Amino acid sequence: MSSIVIACCLATLLLFAGCRSVPPLPPADLSAAGWRVQQGQAVWKPTRTRPELAGEILFATNSTGDCFVQFTKSPFTLATAQIMNGSWQMDFGDGKHSWRGHGEPPSRFVWFQLPRAFSKQDVGGSWSFERVMTNSWRLENRRTGESLEGQLIP
């Protein structure tokens, strides 16, 4: 009987150790040295069947690979994506829909494709990126129909 109790305790310990949640990232300090901040206009189409949303976009990167993207339709924040110190966070709306993790952020979120696209890396998968004019661009997922196009002012 004692070996069963020990096995159950070990299984419980392993289960709880594997279920640790990732804490929220601290707010990005875009006024700190090294951040390059750009703002502009964008149009986001979440899926092929949903309507387009026009709004303001804020895109910031730094030399360590951290990134901050925020899409707003005044007075509401619609999406905020952040990569910091090897962790990532994605929030929609008022934070009721939030995802966090370590390592490479999920490719399904258009917001995490922007740093790759602007650093001329392959966006990969179903995503395609094209520059339309000097400061204009379009990022599209051919499989889902999601797209983000806009202009950033340096």
Which features does this protein show?
15% helix; 154 residues; outer membrane lipoprotein receptor (LolB), chain A; globular; mainly beta; nine-stranded antiparallel β-sheet
Question: What can you see in these coordinates?
Answer:
By secondary structure, this protein is mainly β. It has one domain: outer membrane lipoprotein receptor (LolB), chain A. It has helices spanning 2-18, 113-118, and strands at 35-45, 53-62, 67-73, 76-84, 87-92, 97-102, 127-131, 136-141, 147-153. The chain has a nine-stranded antiparallel β-sheet. It is globular and about 35 Å long. The protein starts with a helix and ends with a strand. Mean pLDDT is 86; it is low at 5-19.
Summary, kept brief:
The chain is mainly beta.
Order of helices and strands: HEEEEEEHEEE
CATH architect. name: Clam
**CATH H level, superfamily name:** Lipoprotein localisation LolA/LolB/LppX
As residue ranges, the low-confidence spans are: 5-19
User: What fraction of residues sit in β-strands?
Assistant: 35-45%
Structural class: mainly beta
Classify the helix fraction into a percent range: 10-25%
- Note the overall shape: globular
| Largest beta-sheet details | 9 strands, antiparallel
Please give the CATH class.
Mainly Beta
Mean pLDDT: 86
Domains (count): 1
And the CATH topology? outer membrane lipoprotein receptor (LolB), chain A
Tell me the number of helical segments per DSSP (H or I, 4 or more residues long). Answer: 2
- Count every beta strand, where a strand is a DSSP E run of 2 or more residues: 9
* Arrangement of strands in the largest sheet: 6-5-4-3-2-1-9-8-7
End-to-end CA span: 69 Å
What Rg do the Cα atoms give? 19 Å
